[in-house]
Amino acid sequence: MENKKRVEHIDWIFHLKHDIPKFLERLKGHHTPGFFHYSLSGDLIDEQEHWGLGNTVFAIKSYFTLGQLDTLPERTRTDMVDFVKSFQSTNGSFFDPIVYRRSFWRDKLSAFKHHDFNNAFHQQTKRAETRQALSALGLLGEQLGQAPADTPKTEQEIDRYLARLDWTKPWGAGSHFSHLLFFLAHSQREEAPSLITHAVRWIATLQRSSDGGWYAGSPSLQQKINGAMKVITGLKAADRLSIHEPRRLIDMALGVSNDAQACDHFNVIYVLKYADEAVEHSYRHDEITSFAVNRLAQYRSHYWPEQGGFSYFLGKANNIYYNAAVSRGLPEPDIHGTVLFLWGIALIAQILGREAELGFKEFIT
């Protein structure tokens, strides 16, 4: 019965390589080469405005996960590269000006509400968009160039950068630790390896032996899991992946549902996958595989087979991206949910030992 259940939960995945490219084709712009819509019909921003950096990044990563990025027509690949690069500033950073304008007041209100002004002027969002753009360009074989000018250059600057983050909210703080390691790893600076070592030592002081998470205070389980995911992505991006409390992370991850939206669904699988590898599949592995199979059933509830994509929320598209309203949140799939669920499926395939059979590829973000 258990094997039959697993087959039922896995079989539908084989259709994704055929269906999702059709969905992505429907999202392609008609006027702007390299542009992709965020959702099928609910976008609030017209294609002909200069926006959609994140949408194209998600499309690139979706094609890569499907193993189809290298088989796209050269013109399509070039259009995507040129479109992403059209958002690059003279200082090397990338950001979407429409997202910036639409998130302006939300950023300010959030800063005052949470007494955290790190993103009051969109600076953290720009850092995140830069990291995402560079990682997507890297998948297309583009040289990443230098790190953004504001990347810390000394151990003292790293200390200040990390200490300013709100580690009582490790989901956000962990993401900016991850960005730091990504930029340092691709900075081509002679001192980068020693700076990475310093940052890794800094973050190690935050890891809790009780549950393996990296945080301060008493954040929610959702924050702990999603924050752990962000820290692990940073360690992996810098090729410094070492998890010192993998069993506690496994215990924590298996004990939560974490299924409010696509990020939650993905992050818990990411934590489990790398914690499981850290113990060489020797701790609660059967429970981890059962958890992964059951998670596929939940993934399927976000899938729209007629359209061929996933929705970020159950039953509807996402409407807010980096604090900016970008869609009406209609009952339809979106490109953001699609890339996250595909990425999660790539990890689940590895957990189940079926990556060769399913043929999904994990990207290093």
Write structural notes for this entry.
With 365 residues, the chain is mainly α. It has one domain. It contains 16 helices and 4 strands. It has helices at residues 2-11, 16-27, 53-65, 74-85, 97-102, 104-114, 123-139, 155-164, 170-185, 192-204, 221-237, 246-254, 262-278, 285-301, 335-351, 355-358; strands spanning 303-304, 309-310, 320-321, 324-325. It has a two-stranded antiparallel sheet with strand order 1-2. A two-stranded antiparallel sheet has the order 3-4. A hairpin with a 2-residue loop joins β3 and β4 (324-325). The protein is globular, with a radius of gyration of 20 Å.
List the defining traits of the structure above.
365 residues, mainly alpha, two-stranded antiparallel sheet, two-stranded antiparallel ribbon, 16 helices
Helicity level = 55-70%
Task: Briefly note the structural class of the backbone.
Answer: mainly alpha
* Beta content: under 5%
Measured between the Cα atoms of the first and last residue, the distance is 37 Å
Taken from the alpha-carbon principal axes, the silhouette is globular
What is the count of helical runs?
16
Query: What is the averaged pLDDT score?
Result: 90
Brief rundown of the structure:
This protein has 365 residues and is mainly alpha-helical.
What are the SSEs and their pairings?
Blueprint: H1 2-11, H2 16-27, H3 53-65, H4 74-85, H5 97-102, H6 104-114, H7 123-139, H8 155-164, H9 170-185, H10 192-204, H11 221-237, H12 246-254, H13 262-278, H14 285-301, E1 303-304, E2 309-310, E3 320-321, E4 324-325, H15 335-351, H16 355-358
Helix pairs in contact: 3-7, 3-15, 7-9, 8-10, 9-10, 9-11, 11-13, 12-13, 13-14, 13-15, 14-15
